[in-house]
Amino acid sequence: MFIFLSKKMKAVYLDKDTKELAQRYDELSYSQLAHGIKMINLLGIKPADQVLDIGCGTGKLALHVSEIVGPRGRVIGIDPLVCRVEIAKKRAKANLLFEVGSSDDLYRFADNSFDCVYLNSVFHWIEKKEETLTEIKRILKKEGKLGLTTGDKNQNTPIRSIIENAVIKILGYKPEEGVFSPFSLGTQEIQSLIEKSGFSIDLFQVDEDSFYSDTAEQILEFFESSSFGNFLSQIPQEYKPHVVEEIKKELEKLRTPRGIERKHRIVTVICKKL
């Protein structure tokens, strides 16, 4: 997922989330759930495993994992967005717990607590990546697994180009502070960072997936809800409706018999604590 985000917004973007955005994300995040299920299959999670989901969102993937670990296992999901955790808690059960928390809060967990930790469509939102990986390594058991999916900072998809070009066309310039996913990395940077953290990489793959939406509005709603209300946040408000209309017009050019195609390059990493 990518958004335009100003430098100023990096410190406060969580405040833009609402109950309505959280609910819409729960309805529209099927692409992220699909990426997550693929990652979970690759992780080889077993019955009775203790699992941590960092950035669990509304809890759909954690619910899936709870069915794998069974009654002797346990899944804990944490997310800094209160509205999303409220939805996730409706999915809680004996072996599935949700708490408000972020990658900065991992100190709450004891050393060697988990068989598996994963971050699905979350890593590009984390500013302190090295510290987070160090903490994950601490709370993982020996030979415990870490899985993550994230976007590629350097991907050049049709929708990315459409958004960039629409902003430039309406504003007449590209905002200097505008960036895609504020803390995203390219594939080489991701691999180097994980290797530097001391994990042994079992799998590192980059896939280009396509998902389809019935309308351009659905795509924009996904961007808005998955970015917690920060989509096009650096655009002066009087120009945003014009930018949105330009994006919608261009998205229609991506329509196929299955709907409007949304391509996305996803990086999947499976690694192990030695």
UniProtKB/TrEMBL annotation:
<protein>
    <submittedName>
        <fullName>Methyltransferase domain-containing protein</fullName>
    </submittedName>
</protein>
<dbReference type="Pfam" id="PF13847">
    <property type="entry name" value="Methyltransf_31"/>
</dbReference>
<dbReference type="InterPro" id="IPR029063">
    <property type="entry name" value="SAM-dependent_MTases_sf"/>
</dbReference>
<dbReference type="InterPro" id="IPR025714">
    <property type="entry name" value="Methyltranfer_dom"/>
</dbReference>
<dbReference type="GO" id="GO:0032259">
    <property type="term" value="P:methylation"/>
</dbReference>
<keyword id="KW-0489">Methyltransferase</keyword>
<dbReference type="GO" id="GO:0008168">
    <property type="term" value="F:methyltransferase activity"/>
</dbReference>
<keyword id="KW-0808">Transferase</keyword>
<feature type="domain" description="Methyltransferase">
    <location>
        <begin position="46"/>
        <end position="158"/>
    </location>
</feature>
